[in-house]
SPFH domain / Band 7 family protein (Lihuaxuella thermophila), 283 residues
Amino acid sequence: MGRVQEREAWKGNGFLFLVLSILLLFGGIFLLTGGLAFGAVLLIAGLLILPGLVINQPNEARVLVFFGKYIGSIREDGFFWANPFAMRKKISLRVRNFDSEKLKVNDADGNPILIGAVVVWKVVDTAKALFDVDDFEQFVAIQSDTAIRNLASQYPYDSHSDDKPSLRGVPEEVAETLRKELHDRLELAGVEIVEARISHLAYAPEIAQVMLRRQQAQAVIAARQQIVEGAMGMVEMALHHLEGHGVVQLDEERKAAMVNNLMVALVSEGETHPVINTGSLYT
């Protein structure tokens, strides 16, 4: 059996049917007081019209079910009349937020982290939302938690490599990945994902201090590597400049000494103090 697809239910002008009901009721009462039995028929007809009146608020829908069969939905706001014998189930079409709890999961590197997300969603197919899943609100909550857990396992918490995406490094990519996965999971429930973003991200308490020291060490190593690479470039440029302009002719030993002095001066964290050599390098 295929899934139920939303369709528009037949509806009439509510004011017109309200006036008709009032006329039938007054007509029936008038005929009954005159001793005519036909007045009872009019009275019953007027009473049967009243349950069919329905008021639909903006961003609200009514799903009509007649003896267990889906006969359509009313999405338009206003005052209408529909099948008085049909059951009417109200569904909100407003945009809603799901704020997940802080979930404890392992990232792609196996590190325990705490992650939470905010999912913005709305119902776009009332028939699917009501008939294809048991409770579409609970379905959104459970599938959102599952998608967040799966997302965390695809990315590391952090990465110092530019070519390796991470939860902290590429928030826009992570948000889009989460939105697409939620769309695939919740489409069968007639739900559209408007936006999904990570709202909380941190290491689990038991490893937070250790991972903080690790992050600091990795940052120091990365910074040192960049400083050394920059210093080597400056030393090479200085040697080429001196030799190219004929300022001084340096043999290999003097080049080594100059490179050593320049590297110490450029890479050292503390203040360097020059030492004036009044003699020769070879004495």
